[in-house]
Design goal:
By secondary structure, the protein is mainly beta. Helix content is about 0%, strand content about 40%. The strands form 2 sheets. Strands 1-8-3-6 form a 4-stranded antiparallel sheet, with no helix packed on it. Strands 2-7-4-5 form a 4-stranded antiparallel sheet, with no helix packed on it.
Length: about 100
């Protein structure tokens, strides 16, 4: 049996970057994703863009230091399966991502 869990920290800078690919790389549907801003400074504000090819600062889900965004399967609801982009106001952004 293969473990389809992702639990890692990724760096985010001042250019848009993909922080989550298609649900588990397109092989398995995503059942949940939790993204937390674990950046070291309060000025490291990160914007997530769900559904577009490029993240734009301030246009999307804005995560201040220690903020969390999650999307999970519940009764009849399937979480977003596409790519998730991120951008940070500074070059020091860090996101902790847990995905199943």
């Amino acid at each position: 049996m293969t473990d389809n869990t992702r639990n890692e920290e990724v760096s985010v800078g001042t250019t848009s970057t993909t922080v989550a690919e298609l649900g588990q790389g397109g092989l398995h549907p995503r059942t949940s994703i939790i993204i937390k801003n674990t950046s070291p400074n309060n000025t490291d504000v990160i914007t997530l863009n769900v559904g577009n090819d490029v993240a734009t600062d301030g246009a999307g889900v804005v995560l201040n230091k220690d903020d969390t965004w999650q999307d999970a399967m519940s009764e009849g609801y399937i979480p977003y399966q596409g790519r998730i982009q991120a951008i940070c106001k500074t070059a020091n952004g860090k996101l902790s991502i847990t995905e199943r």
